[in-house]
Amino acid sequence: MNMILDYNKDIKEANNLRGGKYAEGKHHGDNTDPPINHKNVHTPDYIILYNLVDSIFVSRVSEDALTGISIAAPLQMLMIALGCGLAVGLNAMVSKAMGEKQPEEVKKTTSAAIVMAFGAYLINVIICLLLVKPYFAWQAGGNEVIARYGISYIRICMLFSFCQMLQWVFDRLLIATGKSNLFLATLGTASLGNGILDPVLIFGYF
Fold it and tell me: Can you give the three-state secondary structure of the chain, one letter per residue?
């Protein structure tokens, strides 16, 4: 809940930085800089829905498999924390630069965010390679089956998390530029794709 409140607070502050024209999310005449409409933007908690869908299908494999991905949840939250921190900062900086009519600053901020997204991905890879096995050996209580399921699941999530880090960057660019409807469209498409591909990849329906 604190993360949701902080996220909405950052959006309001970003609007205030844009010359005070959108302090309350309302338009006051200049239509060149659309406001950030936080009412139309989902908070980072939507990521949890992906894990929920995964759990529904994995539970049909075995109880040990479901336990394995449940134990992996803290590692996923770490990935979310890296992406969310990057996204909120990018959102505020881009909104500020747009409000001050500084397109070059927008480009520099976006470029820096992409580099930082790659850095966040490297952190995920390092954690995956060095800490995942010891973590599951500790949390699985010696159950090798649970550990094996959890490790295979989180390895895929972390080793291929670069696309997720980039998604945080480009989603927040859409939000900062007032194109939250396009963001919701891409989010819906990704959620639908996740629901379709889960049974295909988990049960081998191909």
Answer: CHHHHHHHHHHHHHHHHCCCCCCCCCCCCCCCCCCCCHHHCCCHHHHHHHHHHHHHHHCCCCHHHHHHHHHCHHHHHHHHHHHHHHHHHHHHHHHHHHHCCCHHHHHHHHHHHHHHHHHHHHHHHHHHHHHHHHHHHHHCCCCHHHHHHHHHHHHHHHHCCHHHHHHHHHHHHHHHCCCHHHHHHHHHHHHHHHHHHHHHHHHCCC
Residues 49 and 134: beta-carbon distance below 8 Å: no
Residue tagged 């949840």 (tokens): 73
55, amino acid identity: S
Nearest Cα to Cα of residue 35 among 44, 46, 43, 26:
26
CB atoms within 10 A of CB 187: 18
* Tokens at 58, concatenated: 């994995």
At a CB cut-off of 8 Å and minimum separation 6, what does 172 contact? 87, 88, 90, 91, 94
Q: Which residues contact 140 (CB under 8 A, 6 or more apart)?
A: 67, 68, 71, 146, 147, 150
Q: Identify the CA nearest to 179 among candidates 2, 36, 24, 8.
A: 36
Residue 139 has pLDDT above 50, yes or no: yes
Q: Is the pLDDT of residue 94 over 60?
A: yes
pTM: 0.70
